[in-house]
């Protein structure tokens, strides 16, 4: 990674900043479907470049974490006493325990991590399951960079390829669907989310991938399903739906009580295949970070797995009154060492890193979120990487900038298949906080 990044930057500099390539890339994304909050997705002109050794190391790390998280899901489903570790509301627990007739506990995930390119040390930021997205941003930004002279110059001495994230998910989805005893030939598949918060650049590509593979696929708003006692039906046209690719996150479903009952009732009756099932929420919730350090979890982890958690998962506590492994005075006093997050949300909503606030404001944030469903977590300073931005600096078109780095690894059926990488300069690395999306290439 590090050496390849340095060489790519050197190639840009050798082209005096590759102004034409950057302008073409910006125009390509402006004319694409990967817009975020009404504007083209912002991105650097330097990609992440993962060589064979990088990919093998990262694959080993994330598959270990996936195995540990599957053990946690399995124990929650099987052990009533263990569930007490997770302070889930009753309705969420009910959804988690609904029937599921396939074995895969965590079919799709994206593990975001703070990875140091110098020595490959890292900590996990979070585990995304339901709603893992942004595959189209990686794909289209890659296409934008491939037009430029810098990419072509680098490619003269390196074999590059994009990570394939659409057809590979269709293959995984269908393997899981067809493993079921009640699988039907030629099923109708619906990608589902709330229309107003869905990422249609992703949805349209997944639907096209399903259709290209010979499957009937569509988008259906999660509120448009009806259950007639035997079939789940898309109420907009009466089509029976056999399988669901769920992109609607569970926390948002719970914010719409009574509006998603058609899908929920069909899952309850075992009349539709839901991938991913609500049980993935066990590890999507920040509650899992707390559970991973509890002795009841350590009882079924191996010594190596427990040591892995200690090394790579930030210590996490409920932001509650009483004794929880930390003191409120400690959190208030040492603000730069902590970050406050909702126990279950997505998209960096309600996330407060102490480094972004002055002391007075931080103490108010701690008090305002105490006993309100939040967690407080050890803050791990994100490592930095060098980039040249695609937006051209008028004073120095070859300006090299240092940005905080957070690659995310997609896993389908527990196997790493590609990346969604972000950069930022605030305590939260997200586009909403002035961040960038970066694409990735495999380098061979």
Give a short synopsis of this structure.
With 444 residues, the protein is of the alpha+beta class. It has helices at 2-14, 19-30, 52-78, 90-96, 135-146, 149-155, 167-178, 200-212, 250-254, 261-268, 281-284, 287-291, 295-298, 303-312, 328-333, 359-368; strands spanning 35-36, 39-40, 48-51, 108-115, 122-128, 160-162, 188-193, 216-221, 225-227, 232-234, 239-241, 243-246, 273-275, 316-318, 338-342, 352-353, 374-378, 384-387, 401-412, 415-424, 436-438, 440-443. It is globular, with a radius of gyration of 22 Å.
Helical residues, percent: 25-40%
> Which shape, going by the Cα principal axes?
globular
Low-pLDDT parts are none
Strand count, sense and barrel status of the largest sheet are: 6 strands, antiparallel
Task: Tell me the strand percentage band.
Answer: 15-25%
C-alpha Rg, in Å? Answer: 22 Å
Number of strands: 22
The average pLDDT is: 95
Euclidean distance between termini CA atoms? 12 Å
Number of helical segments?
16
SS-derived structural category:
alpha+beta
